[in-house]
Automatic annotation (TrEMBL):
Leader sequence residues: 1-30
Organism, scientific name: Zosterops borbonicus
PANTHER family: PLEIOTROPHIN, PLEIOTROPHIN FAMILY MEMBER
Matching SUPFAM superfamilies: Midkine
Keyword Flavoprotein among UniProt keywords: no
Record's keyword terms, sorted: Disulfide bond, Growth factor, Heparin-binding, Mitogen, Secreted, Signal
InterPro entries: Midkine_heparin-bd_GF, PTN/MK_C_dom, PTN/MK_C_dom_sf, PTN/MK_diS_sf, PTN/MK_N_dom, PTN/MK_N_dom_sf, PTN_MK_heparin-bd_GF_CS
GO MF term list: growth factor activity; heparin binding
Entry protein name: Pleiotrophin
Predominant location: secreted
Compartments it resides in: Secreted
Start and end residues of each Pleiotrophin/Midkine N-terminal domain: 32-93
Length: 165
């Protein structure tokens, strides 16, 4: 009987400890303040509008472009950005306009030129680009390819030269 009373006291103590623990946790949770959700900033600033890239010197390489945007509450309405114009790019179409070109056409015997067409692939920084462009270049001389010795014959010749030495 004593053993039964002792078990009953231990059970009561454990139950009281559990109730106390639950009360402490709920009090802690109640004391926490919920963080207010961040309000989305509404900005009246417009999108950046960029000028074409202007090389620092020459007609290609490193340069700058100017950006502007509108809005009464904008902290910054103009800024300058570094840019680069590839020196091997077709400057006549602008550095901001990238085209996918087709293969060169046949040579026009009247003009001695061949042409190909390019379709706009990408316009950088809202550049005003033509949808399609056509370029021409001189046909060049039509020459017959020189007959080449086969590799096997060349190797045999080198072997004979070594044997003679």
């Amino acid at each position: 009987m004593q053993q039964q009373q002792q078990q009953c006291r231990m059970f009561t103590a454990a139950l009281l400890a559990l109730v106390f623990l639950l009360a402490a946790v709920s009090t802690t949770e109640a004391g926490k303040k919920e963080k207010p959700e961040k309000k989305a900033k509404k900005s009246d600033c417009g999108e950046w509008q960029w000028s074409v890239c202007v090389p620092t010197s020459g007609d290609c390489g490193l340069g700058t472009r100017e950006g502007t945007r509108t809005g009464a509450e904008c902290k910054q309405t103009t800024k300058t950005q570094k840019c680069k114009i590839p020196c091997n790019w077709k400057k006549q179409f602008g550095a901001e306009c990238k085209y996918q070109f087709q293969a060169w056409g046949e040579c026009d015997l009247n003009t001695a030129l061949k042409t190909r067409t390019g379709n706009l692939k990408r316009a950088l920084h809202n550049a005003d680009c033509q949808k399609t462009v056509t370029i021409s270049k001189p046909c060049g001389k039509l020459t017959k390819p020189k007959p080449q010795e086969s590799k096997k014959k060349k190797k045999e010749g080198k072997k004979q030269e070594k044997m003679l030495d």
